[in-house]
Amino acid sequence: MKYHLPGIIEGYSHGHFLMTDDEDSGLQWYSSNEHALIPLDDRFRYPTSLRRVINQKRFTVRINGDFRAVVAGCADRDTTWISDELQEIYWELCQGGWAYSFETWLGNELAGGILGIAIGSAFIGESMFFNIPEGSKVAMVELVNHLRQQKFSLFDAQMTNPHLERFGSYTIDTQAYQDLLTIAIAQKCEFINSSQMG
To answer: For residue range 106-119, what is the model confidence (pLDDT) as tens digits?
Structure first.
């Protein structure tokens, strides 16, 4: 692997992220003029219809139950920035205790999941997907609950979209983001306890 884990974590710690632009350029570091955040306070919201689904307790939650399947699910789209090389980097980060898949399951079937990187008290969401309707939405709500319980202070969604806006996502400029990120990565947090492994 041409990218080394310490260098990757350093890049994310400075607000950059890896993605594949096209087959010619390969993996590159990118940054953005603004970042989308998912609130971890009372500004977080979700539709009443989703609340009913959660209350039905149809889905169970696992962390790293099938990390590779979540990464593959996130990459499985017509145009993807998650190349085979980046999938392997995520796996290396997972084995190093940096990357996690937060999953919903319906019985023995993977319903949906969110892929992200945890540094200090910052969770940097990379991508999400679903196999079963509502799977990724339930994962989002349960992930926010989990981050709150673990005392995380920052949930970076990188880029907003109408789907994330339904959860209260908002954007801030680069300087404001860097200030929050610097504070967050300096705070010690554990994303997962051994009892929470999938």
So the answer is: 999 999 999 999 99
Dihedral through CA 76, CA 81, CA 135, CA 13, nearest 10? Answer: 150
Domain ranges of the chain: 32-196
Which of the two residues, 194 and 134, has the higher pLDDT score?
A: 134
CA–CA gap between residue 161 and residue 119 (Å, rounded) = 24
- Residue that the structure tokens 């990757």 belong to: 8
Identify how many contiguous H helices and E strands the chain contains and give both numbers: 7, 9
CA distance 158 to 168: 14
Please tell me the CATH code under which domain 32-196 is placed. 3.40.630.70
Whole-model pTM: value is: 0.92
